[in-house]
């Protein structure tokens, strides 16, 4: 495939895009806001030279936080522009950075929309986070002599196989990037095999993310809501179908004093998960309405709040990181380890393959294959607080030993920033 046919395909689906936004807006009204930006129409005021970072959603935005703060400190006479694809990513940006940065939606990868975006903001440099390859955007930056970097880049074997089927399109796109900073040697090798050049290994920015200064205090306050003297199991960032597995595992564990907190990955699923809890006859309360310590009858909490994941981790004794019990690729286990917590993960962690393997090898994390093994793991860890502490300490040590990606990535970006 070449870029011409790629663009033709995008134009063919263009008439259905407003319908998609409307349908998504039914469950998540935020999708109906700022929709013009998705087609390259902006009203933001631009008064300084722009340094642009694209962070798709919540995970990429949180991962970029150390880098954003470093850029704000290093370039006070520039405007930091964050682009997002999802409303939750945009909301996370607002929560983390407030008015220190400018934020808009990245337009769809249509030539006319990309052209409007690049002409309007005219960034001195562009930075794509992780695996964001938009081929008209890449070509547009090259045509306008805007350096474009792919940083914190990761590419699983599965994704590499998919990209390889696009042949010339991917090869040209990767070669048009100014530079790539990969997370691991394996990521760098896969990108190089697809045609990328100027690839270096900078490490994973997620290891440099610093928890909020008051997170321990917030964690204790949340723990007081759960009940200070009862064990707390947290299932964080769960995906479709995983809650049923967790409910099966906890029910089989037969630990009446255990409190289980489930925090779905996507807020639009809060109602769906609550309906499942009701269907299963669970005695639960919601985080949003729990104002005083949960009574002894409450055995479950639905974590229906945003922006509190570090606090949830701080409040728990044992943490399962979701997206891994079923083949979703896994969510970020670094945050749980950063809080010094014992981590459980499923078999499906290809999004964090190297980190997961390292955590398991260093006994900072355990793998669980199904509901039965999850039951046994929770029972074992609740019965051995010293093992909880040992796993948590090993996870924290792993995080501290893996830091430094922000400094390496910042150094790379500095090479491409034009002096205004």
User: Uncertain spans, ≥5 residues at pLDDT below 50?
Assistant: none
How is the largest sheet built, in terms of strand order?
Answer: 3-2-1-4-5-6-7
The amount of helix comes to: 40-55%
Distance between the termini: 38 Å
Identify the notable features of this structure and list them briefly:
420 residues, alpha/beta, Rossmann fold, 2 domains, seven-stranded parallel sheet, 18 helices, 45% helix
Short description:
The protein has 18 helices and 14 strands. By secondary structure, the protein is an alpha/beta fold. It has two domains: 3-203 and 404-414, Rossmann fold, CATH 3.40.50; 215-401, Glycogen Phosphorylase B (Rossmann fold), CATH 3.40.50.
Report on the architecture of this protein:
By secondary structure, the chain is of the alpha/beta class. It folds into two domains: 3-203 and 404-414, 3-Layer(aba) Sandwich (Rossmann fold), CATH 3.40.50; 215-401, Rossmann fold, CATH 3.40.50. It has 18 helices and 14 strands. A seven-stranded parallel β-sheet has the order 3-2-1-4-5-6-7, sandwiched between helices. A seven-stranded parallel β-sheet has the order 10-11-9-8-12-13-14, with helices on both faces. Helix 4 links the parallel strand 2 and strand 3 (102-105). Helix 6 (135-143) packs across helix 8 (168-176), helix 10 packs across helix 13 (309-315) and helix 11 packs across helix 16. The longest helix has 17 residues, at 58-74. The two termini are 38 Å apart. The model has no long low-confidence stretch (mean pLDDT 95).
């Amino acid at each position: 495939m070449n870029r011409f046919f790629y663009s033709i395909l995008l134009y063919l689906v263009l008439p259905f895009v407003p319908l998609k936004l409307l349908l998504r807006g039914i469950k998540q009204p935020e999708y109906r806001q700022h929709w013009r930006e998705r087609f390259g129409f902006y009203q933001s005021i631009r008064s300084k030279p722009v340094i642009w970072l694209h962070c798709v959603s919540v995970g990429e935005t949180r991962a970029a936080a150390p880098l954003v703060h470093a850029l704000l400190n290093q370039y006070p006479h520039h405007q930091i522009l964050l682009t997002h694809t999802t409303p939750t990513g945009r909301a996370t940006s607002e929560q983390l950075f407030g008015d220190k940065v400018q934020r808009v939606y990245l337009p769809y990868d249509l030539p006319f929309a990309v052209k409007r975006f690049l002409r309007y903001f005219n960034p001195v440099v562009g930075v794509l986070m992780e695996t964001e390859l938009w081929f008209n955007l890449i070509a547009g930056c090259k045509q306008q002599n805007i350096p474009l970097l792919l940083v914190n880049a990761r590419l699983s074997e599965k994704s590499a196989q998919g990209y390889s089927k696009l042949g010339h399109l991917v090869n040209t796109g990767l070669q048009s990037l100014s530079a790539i900073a990969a997370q691991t040697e394996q990521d760098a090798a896969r990108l190089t095999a697809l045609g990328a050049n100027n690839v270096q290994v900078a490490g994973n920015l997620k290891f440099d993310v610093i928890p909020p200064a008051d997170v321990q205090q917030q964690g204790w306050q949340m723990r007081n809501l759960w009940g200070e003297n009862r064990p707390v199991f947290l299932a964080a960032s769960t995906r479709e179908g995983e809650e049923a597995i967790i409910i099966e595992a906890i029910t089989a564990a037969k630990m009446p004093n255990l409190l289980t907190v489930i925090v779905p990955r996507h807020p639009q699923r809060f109602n769906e998960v609550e309906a499942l809890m009701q269907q299963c006859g669970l005695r639960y309360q919601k985080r949003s309405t729990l104002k005083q310590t949960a009574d002894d009858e409450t055995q479950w909490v639905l974590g229906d709040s945003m922006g509190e994941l570090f606090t949830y981790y701080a409040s728990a004794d044992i943490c399962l990181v979701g997206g891994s019990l079923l083949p979703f690729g896994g969510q970020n286990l670094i945050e749980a380890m950063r809080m010094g917590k014992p981590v459980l993960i499923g078999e499906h962690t290809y999004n964090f393959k190297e980190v997961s393997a390292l955590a398991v090898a260093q006994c900072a994390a355990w793998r669980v294959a199904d509901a039965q093994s999850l039951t046994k793991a929770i029972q074992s860890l609740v019965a051995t607080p010293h093992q909880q502490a040992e796993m948590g300490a090993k996870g924290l040590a792993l995080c501290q030993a893996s830091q430094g990606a922000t400094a390496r990535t910042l150094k790379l970006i500095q090479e491409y920033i034009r002096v205004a």
